[in-house]
C-alpha cells in the first residue's frame, strides 16, 4: 500500500475542462468524472434532471502524491476563487495489484521515482 492524497472536486460542468488542464499542468493525468450529481450547497438545491448539463454539477477526483498536491495547491485555490466549487482533500492508502506494485518498486530502485 502507498500513502497518497485523494483530491475531490464538486464543480459546475462547464469548468471541468479547465480543471483537467490544471491537473495536466501539474503532471496529473489520471482522474475520474461523475456527471450530473445532485445535492444542496451554496447555490441551493441542484438536481440532475436539467434539460441541459450546462448548469449541472460534476464530481471529479484524482489521486496523487502529497508533493504533487502541494505543487498545485495555489492553482487550486485560484481556480476555486475564479470558478467556484468545492475541493476536499483526503489522506488515502492506495492498494496496488502485484504487477503495479512491482513496477513501482522497480521505478523507486532505478531512481526515477522518489
From TrEMBL:
Record-linked Pfam families: P-II
Family annotation (InterPro entries): N-reg_PII (IPR002187), N-reg_PII-like_a/b (IPR011322), N-reg_PII/ATP_PRibTrfase_C (IPR015867)
Top-level taxon in the UniProt lineage: Bacteria
One of the record's GO molecular function terms: enzyme regulator activity
GO biological process terms held by the UniProt record: regulation of nitrogen utilization
Protein name: Transcriptional regulator
The species this protein was found in: Sulfurimonas aquatica
Amino acid at each position: 500500500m502507498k500513502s497518497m492524497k485523494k483530491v475531490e472536486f464538486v464543480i459546475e460542468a462547464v469548468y471541468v475542462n479547465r480543471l483537467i488542464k490544471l491537473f495536466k499542468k501539474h503532471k496529473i493525468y489520471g482522474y475520474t468524472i461523475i456527471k450530473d450529481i445532485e445535492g444542496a450547497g451554496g447555490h441551493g438545491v441542484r438536481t440532475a434532471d436539467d434539460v441541459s448539463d450546462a448548469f449541472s454539477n460534476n464530481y471529479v477526483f484524482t489521486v496523487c502524491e502529497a508533493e504533487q498536491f502541494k505543487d498545485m495547491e495555489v492553482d487550486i485555490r485560484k481556480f476555486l476563487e475564479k470558478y467556484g466549487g468545492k475541493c476536499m482533500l483526503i489522506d488515502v492508502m492506495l492498494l496496488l495489484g502485484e504487477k503495479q506494485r512491482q513496477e513501482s518498486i522497480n521505478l523507486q530502485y532505478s531512481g526515477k521515482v522518489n
